[in-house]
Amino acid sequence: MSTALRAVISVVMLAGFYLLGLVQLALVGWLIYEIWQHLHGAGAAKLSYLLLAAVGAVLAGLWRAIRAKPGDPHGLIVTPDQAPQLWQQVRELAAEVGTRAPDEIRIVPEVNAAVSEDTKLLGLIGGVRRLYIGMPLLQTFTVDQLRSVLAHELGHYSGSHTRLAGVAYRGRLAMHETLGGVGNWNVFGWVFKAYGWLYQLVSNAVARRQELEADLASVRVAGVDAAVSSMRELPVVDAAWDFYFGRYIAYGWELGYAPDDVFGGFAKLYQARADELARMREEEPDDETSRWDTHPAISERIAAMRAAPRTAHAVDGRSATALMPTVEAAGMALQREVVDFGTRTVLPWEDFTAASMTLVLQNRADRVFRSAARIAGLPVAGLAEVFGLVEAGRLGELAAEFFPQSTRKEAAAEFADVMATLLGLAAVRSGQAGWQHSWSKPAVLADRNGEPVDFTEIAKLAVAPETVGEARARLAEQGVQVEAVQVVQTRATGQGADVLGAMPNVKMDGTEHADLILLSKGFVVVPAPKSTDDGEKRVAALLSGTSPAELTARYRFIAFEDISTVRIDREVPVNTTLLLHGGQTVGIQERWTSDKVGKSDDVFREILTKLRDRGDQ
């Protein structure tokens, strides 16, 4: 079956999806008519209401899909005057592929390239064409590799793939809006789910075939070697991009800091990590795929490329930045266009790393200091108070919270690693050490001479009553003041926490209704309506726009460190009582009618079991 025929079938099926809604509406109208012909009063009214409610949920989703439109184009517009070489290359490629060149080129903050077209009359009439090029590709690809990717995207134009993009968008939206708005027990929804399943199979098959056709256009224009090289390089760049944001930006971003050159930093990391990236390139490409994927597996695409006829092509191994020499300025302009710093403090990379890592250390230390204050019976504590617990022979009480599987004596010895972190923070606060930024390795704590600082040996001395005095003396010799470190956050927060799951519509203390968010550092209790309808959608909307730190600041937060003991009264559905260190109790009861987000109930039981076992030590 040809790609064009598959696309036509996909469009016909989309029309059938809307027609199915009208048929169901007509069916409901006929059923209501029959009900009132044979029944009267409250019984007829109740049945009519149930039918209308069931079909109404389906039709509401269809109506939202009909009215919705694709979002506005994003990214930084690059004009021919700003990047003449890039525009010339794109126009030449378009001519070789046999299609009209795009009207706009936009640089986007993604490891991707794409095309779009504003069409009319279900794609019969073409419109404004846009080519999107990911900034990471410009920074890392060679000219040959970028030519291959651009030829692939322009190949979608020549195959008229973009003509039906708007229809495909509405199809996906119709499925999502309609199926997301019906309950599991809505009979009318069952029919739509089956139809949506079939539509997605056909639509995805069309998409996979279109990708293979565009790949052949890339091979014909740019050559087999360039096409294969770009295909193998894409997952490498994608992994580096994720690593960059996860390891270099995310932690500081959440703590209220931001680097002054977001995209320029990635280019530097990519150059500095050349050896690691080279090892990644040696790995075999992904060969896993399924009928639900919109793209064939990379190995399948490479095999098809290598099987295509070979033609001679001049090799151009220059950096893709040769097509856009102003890429650094473009990166800063793109940053102004798409990055929202909010209220974050924007710093040069070296200062950003130093400020972020110091605050990371402080947050870890605060966790220790809060427990130390509770054990010592003090309002607040710092490193001096932790040393005081060591001198009093009470470190085991504190260490047991961090090493619950060990005896108190064993936990006190194992606490040396935690103590080393506290001493590192003391060195920073005393002005004797600072963080060194690096693109090729993790940031390191170094002294004033730039030599790495290691407090491992002193930390071992600091966890034993008989040697803690020697630890104090050695720290003083290095100018490290124990008193320089105090608690900053006296209450636990969600900074640095991950969302593990969510349980909508639970009962709190037997009466209060709430949505329970499961974080890696504790539970967030969000007030909820008594109705159990749409709990999963409500929680998803909340989590999509709210960070864990914001959740814990806005709603009630029960940190794991604040829980003394856990009693599990029933496993399924969960019924538990938490006893907090302050003496309060919190009852949490899962309802039979509660929504379940994935396997969050299993995650909740696992967390409770660990907390209970910790308290039993």
From TrEMBL:
Membrane topology value: Multi-pass membrane protein
Annotated TM spans: 7-32, 47-66
Subcellular location: Cell membrane
Gene Ontology CC annotations of this record: plasma membrane
Cleavable signal peptide: none
Cofactor: Zn(2+)
Key word Iron present: no
GO molecular function: metal ion binding; metalloendopeptidase activity
Residue ranges that the Swiss-Prot or TrEMBL entry lists as coiled coil: none
InterPro entries to which the protein is assigned, alphabetical: HtpX_protease, Peptidase_M48
Protein's UniProt name: HtpX-like protease
Upper classification of the organism: Bacteria, Bacillati, Actinomycetota, Actinomycetes, Micromonosporales
